[in-house]
Amino acid sequence: MELRAGDSWGIFTFLCAALCNLPALPALNCSEELGAGQSIQKTYDLTRYLEHQLRTLAGTYLNYLGPPFNEPDFNPPRLARAERVPSATVDLDLWRGLTDNARLAANYRAYSRLLCYLRALDGQAGTAELRHRLGHFCSSLQGLVLSIAGVMSSLGYPLPAGPAAPPASPGTPVAPNDFLKKMDDFWLLKELQTWLWRSAKDFNRLKKKVPPAVVTLRLEARGF
After folding, report:
1. Region 11-39: what's the mean pLDDT?
2. CA distance to 22, 172, 178, 184, per residue, from 175 (Å)
3. Higher-pLDDT residue of 206, 3
4. What pLDDT was estimated at residue 68?
């Protein structure tokens, strides 16, 4: 069967008219959701990167403090002054017994406060190289705080209430001598190292609970 030119034009006109008079059909959109799984993976990777970065920074800073702080077997008791720094020395069974929300909130609060203390170190560092290393690490740690906030948001958890920065406490005296000031710095780095080690384990477990991001199809109805 052959179609003449007039027949083809008639069929084309008929199809155009039919399409113009159809109601708007649902539009099919394909979009990739950046779900919680991808956010958790990003936070885990950043935590491991900070662990590696801290090893270099701590070695440089402890050498700057000098002996006995840079000696491998130096393990002083934690003084009452160091209690201002968030401690990661919590029983592991107790920590794992917390909800995901509680652990994430504790991580968010701890790194927010540790970041403030580290920025104070940055202002006191005696060499340009050390200030550069501390500044770079503070930027990375700020990224971790924001990343944890993103994980909490993607899981539907609210951010912890209250100020993220350590509260001003006029009654807290400054270190009475240089040795105690160095002790404060030592414990800050030690606690930060423990927090990062434990956080990496937390995010590794959490990412196994949450499926990775998926591609979803959405139907958007228009004109109905």
Report:
1. 51
2. 79, 9, 7, 8
3. 206
4. 93
Distance separating alpha carbons of residues 67 and 161, to the nearest angstrom: 41
What token pair was written down for 63? Answer: 């050498």
- The distance of Cα 199 from the centroid of its chain, to the nearest Å, equals 10
User: Measuring CA to CA, how many Å separate 70 from each of 74, 137, 195?
Assistant: 8, 20, 20
| Helix/strand/coil for 218 | strand
Residue-level pLDDT at 100: 94
- 193 exposed, middle or buried (CB, 10 Å; 0-12, 13-18, 19+)? middle
CA angle 140, 146, 150 (to 5 degrees): 135
The pTM of the whole model exceeds 0.70: yes
Q: How far apart are CA 163 and CA 7, in angstroms?
A: 76
DSSP reduced 3-state for 30: strand
